[in-house]
Design goal:
single chain, 111 residues, mainly beta, 51% strand, globular
Length: 111
């Protein structure tokens, strides 16, 4: 079981990024998928999740209206589309599926 996040980077405030979480060793279809983030000196916090059944989604208040989670079961990949990025979105972003974590991808929002 392996999860690999990608797509992070340095972006200016107001910019956009798309994070990917690719799974291998298991099929994402049957699982709810979660995105978390951890900023320096802060606890890891839940950002978004998407269900395995009806595709319902959840967003933390801090990202609601700016981030969108989606899944492509054919590619066994989940995405986090991030728009209108703010400096406070700077963090390492992780995906979590059935208790397994990826290595994270760094997002830095700075001018």
């Amino acid at each position: 079981v392996q999860l690999v996040e990608s797509g992070g980077g340095l972006v200016q405030p107001g910019g956009s990024l798309r994070l990917s979480c690719a799974a291998s060793g298991f099929t994402l279809d049957y699982y709810a998928i979660h995105w978390f983030r951890q900023a320096p000196g802060k606890e890891r916090e839940g950002v978004s999740c998407i269900s395995s059944t009806d595709g319902s989604t959840y967003y933390a208040d801090s990202v609601k209206g700016r981030f969108t989670i989606s899944r492509d079961n054919a590619k066994n990949t989940v995405y986090l589309h991030m728009n209108s990025l703010k400096p406070e979105d700077t963090a390492v972003y992780y995906c979590n599926v059935a208790g397994s974590w990826g290595q994270g991808t760094q997002v830095t929002v700075s001018s």
